[in-house]
């Protein structure tokens, strides 16, 4: 989060109800005392109108792209027949396709006639390497998505899980891993689950609260709203009213009944089996919500400032040049609209309002111009979900929309079966660990994101903070997960004139990687070599790391920071084989020393190296209690 967020809300935040009263007046609510009644009426009045479909219906199928605002017409059927030329839109029938031909022709021709690389826009030389060091905002998350019960969660039967399962996300970022974990809970599990979801950034915690609060209030009906709140610049009018009123209702209750208390608790709706949403550190979170709710920026002004910022993005055109023509068009549409929706969706600008919870109240759009909402999601899973929903094969953001919808639907379904207590807090990770230790809390799984990287807390601090909190349970592996995102950039094994990539592969490393790429192309197709050529031309040299075995370098890194010694000092041991998440991105969990490029299909290599924006040197290490 930028310093401007912190300075703005810390300077202007209020611990009384003034801000809530003002918001209530703006929404023509005579008294905050009746806000709960208003919320109930809003929920009832917006039922069936909170989606992205026509007339506010939930967008549960890929839409037919035949719509025309000038004629006041939009087909409400499912798109079944994709356009064979662009692979971006679908139609319900040949008749709809013919009716829409003139409107679609411009988009289709753009795809067909586009060269893969817009040469005049691509950055050259050392400028690429400097710009590649830029980091995107964490609002959308920039770590891989995974659940804490493991990729093979079906192996964790109800009998093997602790009856009162306690999980912690010490530096959560967004809610992707929380949602993935809930979706992994095996059917028939009857115990209680406690989740500690913490981040030091009040903006992240506020947004996570809003998402969980919407799901708590409306269940399935809130899914499209949540996707908009999470990723999009705009919301429909009904979605905006629901978010505003539910936020005012929460803040009013928090300040009226809990003004001096640190913990605030809300029960989930009748669809759930007793789940609760608990919030600590209200003094940090509630003023931030007020600050965002009072945002008076217009949608048009934000779209304008957003476009100006994006056009200055140092990596945008270089990244764009690595994509297939259809993917370039999809990316440019997302850049224009800021919406996570299927490409051919009905879109009436007059029905949309600003998503106030993704922009700065006074400074407008502050998300990095190169931010990528696809980062961290397993793109093979995303595209597979899109295929199930009949999304055309090149519509990446349409596939992401339905993947999010699918995961959120499973999340709500699991809450029908399980009792979960979501504890949100806004602390430093070390402060949270100290707080839990003082309260006598013990944990079964701890995800620490990448705070073990040397530029953050460092591994020793993470082990000392969280190792003593793991609880020994017979037949279950209590585990601390550390993610090393930036370890390779700190290595100094090569001299400056021999550095070939940001992760400092030497000439011999590169030769070995190229050799492996050529071996993958042994049948003569040349697909992988073409990816390498495109990446090399546009600064996407992470593909070399994708085909490089960095195991020995990573072992040397762990040795240099005394990882095993520090772990032993707190009763932990490094697991030889990971049980929760693979040791490296895009390899199997059974593959302890895998190289992604050895087994990845061409599609997976393309999505990982060209579409994604990871360095592909990232490593996961799992730590367990000594036997």
> From the structure provided, what is the oligomeric state, counting identical versus distinct chains?
single chain
Tell me the overall shape: globular
**What Rg, in angstroms, do the CA atoms define?**
25 Å
- Count of distinct strands: 15
Biggest sheet layout: 9 strands, mixed
Total of helices: 25
The largest sheet has its strands arranged as 8-9-11-6-5-12-13-15-14
Structural class: alpha/beta
The mean pLDDT is 83
Tell me the distance between the termini: 40 Å
Query: Which regions have little confidence, pLDDT < 50, spanning 5+ residues?
Result: 1-17, 117-137, 494-499
The percentage of residues in β strands lies in 5-15%
Helix percent reads 40-55%
Characterization of this structure:
The protein is α/β, with parallel strands linked by helices and about 625 residues long. It contains 25 helices and 15 strands. The protein has helices at about 5-10, 20-25, 35-45, 95-100, 100-115, 125-130, 175-185, 200-220, 225-230, 235-260, 280-295, 300-310, 315-320, 325-335, 380-390, 395-415, 430-440, 460-465, 505-520, 525-535, 540-545, 550-560, 565-570, 595-600, 600-610, and strands at about 65-70, 75, 80, 90, 165-170, 190-200, 235, 265, 275-280, 350-355, 420-425, 445, 480-485, 570-575, 620-625. The strands form four sheets. The protein has a nine-stranded mixed beta sheet with strand order 8-9-11-6-5-12-13-15-14, with helices on both faces. A two-stranded antiparallel sheet has the order 1-2. Strand 5, helix 7 and strand 6 form a beta-alpha-beta unit. Helix 7 (about 175-185) packs across helix 16 and helix 17 (about 430-440) runs parallel beside helix 18 (about 460-465). The radius of gyration is 25 Å and the shape is globular. The protein starts with a helix and ends with a strand.
